[in-house]
Amino acid sequence: GNSVTQMEGPVTLSEEAFLTINCTYTATGYPSLFWYVQYPGEGLQLLLKATKADDKGSNKGFEATYRKETTSFHLEKGSVQVSDSAVYFCALSSSPGSARQLTFGSGTQLTVLP
Amino acid sequence: DAGVIQSPRHEVTEMGQEVTLRCKPISGHDYLFWYRQTMMRGLELLIYFNNNVPIDDSGMPEDRFSAKMPNASFSTLKIQPSEPRDSAVYFCASSGEGQGAEAFFGQGTRLTVV
Question: Cα-flanking dihedrals φ and ψ of residue B86, to 5°?
Fold first, then answer.
């Protein structure tokens, strides 16, 4: 079956530091890949996505590249802000036949200190 | 559209009582997902529907849990009888067709069973 493995947290950084959160996946076929973010007390919301190999998703300074050869979708940001403090989830979606599989990683808590 | 709407936002109930969580998906979305989030187990998929039909309920923890989707604009997750270990945040999400379609999450229902 499908699975997503992401970097264990928590991660604590100073403002303006560089961020990488690693994500690797196992899936059959050609899944779509997502990063979701969850702020305290809220539901998950889409941060960025990529639907095919070598696609780069980007949003709000975050980016991730769909690497099929390494089955990875690492999240990066060049300069984090205090407002980026949240939990980040890597996810994949595949549609074998009429089914729909939406699989999430365990989440990585990010805290950015001023 | 107002997004995915869940009610109630918070629910406190006594062990043994019946609990019903409600969800209104985004209009036009074909898929509806119910997730449970806890510190210990992270985000778990309980069940999902396609065009109001349950497709995969393998994540439902036991017979005390049941879910229905009587029409395209409403779904319920019922726990009867509830137990303290059911305490968690329950999320509903909906998405359109295609594996590249993102899932939109509600703000969740925080359930506490005492």
Answer: -85, -10
